[in-house]
Fold this protein.
Amino acid sequence: MSDNRRTRLDTPRDTRRHLVRRPSYDSDAFGSFAEQFARFMGTAKFLMYMTLFVIVWMAWNTLAPADLRFDEFPFIFLTLMLSLQASYAAPLILLAQNRQEQRDKVVAEQDRQANARAHADMEFLAREVASLRMAVGEVATRDFLRSELRGLLGDIEDLSTRGPDDSAQAPPDRVQRPGQ
């Protein structure tokens, strides 16, 4: 890649020359390792293994013959080992937490967008229901139709009681249509 950068005229050259190349690593793979490590350290299994390791270490260095002990004094080497483990564990756990925080931010943003879409949908549906209510207000209701039919039934009954001779004399408020 450095040869490709040198041939391009729009890319400035590095001002410093590196005698030793910096190590490159895949940050996602390293982050994934850190998350797995942090998950393992947060289990009872790890705690049991660490407790067993410390007990075996202390038992060996107190009960074994003096020439086989490797940490005779108040377990200075054990303290060094545990400090070394803690010095590596803390940054790995922080890295895993940072990655989890970034994932949580992405999820929170997706949730916010989904909530905004749901809110917009609810507002649209509320407007639709309101327009349907207004439209239904203009439509003839069941009670209105019943009252009209009762009125017509009453008119028909009046006409039938008067007989066919009286049909020529229609009530003054009604207009007689041809064929009636």
Observations:
- The chain is about 70% helix and 0% strand.
- The chain has a mean pLDDT of 83.
- Helices lie at 2-7, 27-41, 44-63, 76-138, 142-162.
